[in-house]
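User: Could you check the structure of this?
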Amino acid sequence: MVYNIIMIKNTDKLREFEDNLIKNTPVDFEENRAVFEMLKNQAIQMNRWVTNDLEGIESKIKLARALNGRK
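Assistant: Sure, the predicted structure tokens are below.
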């Protein structure tokens, strides 16, 4: 098998492109929910889905806020 590998040399341009794409692409809640459900079902099949989702949620929220620079 032959792979064509392209090296990105101007990462600033790529980041600018990605930022603009995110900024200018509307959020599709239904599509995002469908993707989440598919990933959840796959995790369940792999026995990786935690059934008690709220266990330890407070500490997870604090960690997420700290990582994202929020209070």
